[in-house]
Amino acid sequence: MNKIDARGLSCPAPVLETKAAVENRHPRHLEVLVDNEPARQNVVRFLESQGYRTHVDQEGALYTVVGTGGDSVPGPKPVETASGDAGKKIMVMVAADRMGSGDDLLGAKLMINFIKTLKEMGDELWRLVFVNSGVKLTIDGAGTLEDLKGLEEGGLTLLVCGTCLDHFDLLEKKRVGQTTNMLDIVTAMQLADKVINI
Amino acid sequence: MCGLDFPTDPNVLVGLSRADDAGVYKISDDLALIQTVDFFTPVVDDPYWFGQIAAANALSDVYAMGGEPKTAMNLVSFPLKRMDLSVLREVIQGGIDKVREAGVVLLGGHSVEDDELKYGLSVTGFIHPNRILTKQGLNVGDRLVLTKPLGTGIVNTAIKGNLASGEITRKVTAIMAALNRTAATVMREYPVHACTDITGFGLIGHLAEMMQGTGLGLKIILEKLPIIDVALGFAAMGMVPGGTHKNRSFRAHMVDMDEGVDPAMQDIIFDPQTSGGLCIAVAPTSAEGLVDHLQSEGVEHAAIIGEVVDYPAGIIQVV
After folding, report:
1. What is the ipTM of this complex?
2. CATH of domain A90-197
3. Which domain holds residue B78?
4. C-alpha dihedral over A17, A20, A21, A24, to 10 degrees?
5. Taking CB atoms and an 8 Å limit, are A19 and B241 in contact across chains?
6. What tens digit of pLDDT does each residue of A124-182 get?
7. Which residue in the set A37, A46, A162 is minimally distant from B166, CB to CB?
8. Which of A21-30, B1-10, B87-96 has the lowest average pLDDT?
9. CA-nearest residue of chain B to A10?
10. In a shared domain, residues B115 and B150
11. How far is the C-alpha of B207 from the C-alpha of B103, rounded, in Å?
12. Same structural domain for residues B173 and B25?
């Protein structure tokens, strides 16, 4: 039984303690004791954002928030939509701003077409990751931007390498996707059923 | 501070009798002194940036009065026994750099040993006695212009919870460390009736102070609010600081908001801000010009967020 006693704590301490427990132990079931309404609200929100079902038992000013069925992946999941529960999880890693080598102009056209066509993978497309010059596909003025935005709006998680953006001095110009680090990329590779490198 | 007897002086133009962002003391018919002091515990891990933010925050009160800061003094509490002095050096370097950016000179300061690090400044500025901008002075029809995006309290909570990427941390740090100087300079050219800076009481708390005693009401348009984009997502995950709830319970009775409004959005309007932007009440016909001017000078998030209405009085309608 995972129990967190967060009585006497004010926000954001209860939700941060809950987060630590979820990350360290990935419990299927946990109970969080809080003694104020804001803490109750925030712990419920956090658990639900991590895929738990919740209910609250109240006794006077004491609330027990019960979370069950957590399916959280290791590591934080900031602001992202759950996806890919069904079927395979395909991660596509784009490491260049053009497709293939030979003719760069052709390569750039092919890349635009590739991104446009990616949606045909359907729900199995789980992560789209951009590294090295691939990050240039996510910036202002890129021919791929509108299609990438469409994919993101459809619930796909796009990860864009922060080190790479920084290297090309494009941090401010990125218009789509979450900036990410190597740990997130490696974790995504590990969780994916299939990784396609472009 | 009810019941305490404070000394008075006819030259006090803005004092304790109606709490404002800073006090103003008249020296001559064309010069008045603005004085303010502010300090707090670290809001970010990086000591240099903490210094910058604390300085930007202290300077902001002078900008909110329409004035120009001139001199500053450091205020430091430092836990000598458990923190290396190099940390303090970084903090003060941040403060110096920010003060220099503001064209302000540092004249000295005072430090004491304490259990935790605190830093801030007392700031003195100049203003013409006829050009003082207080929180009072709203006119019906005035548009409200906000100059920085909301959500720093929520994003800082997410940073504490290791949920924010380095890029998000850098972005919110830069927002907090940004001076309100450009906004204050630009607004001098417009028919501004009242101004304050948005800090610990959150947007609604500071709007309530502007509205109080005017017999007028306010209307805020949620979709116009500049918001740090990730803040809504973090709020939806429960990354909400305690101050948000305190602000809400203190002012909820003055707010008329549809219950169906996204709870995360409700948190944004009560979220305590660190070194937030200016909220400027400007004549309606000048509002768009002011915002365009602010944006062209680099105050990129400036937006018209609402207006002053005559009915219902004493209520902030949030639509």
Report:
1. 0.75
2. 3.40.1260.10
3. 12-131
4. -160
5. no
6. 898 999 999 999 999 988 999 999 998 988 888 898 988 888 888 888 888 898 888 88
7. A162
8. B1-10
9. B242
10. no
11. 29
12. no
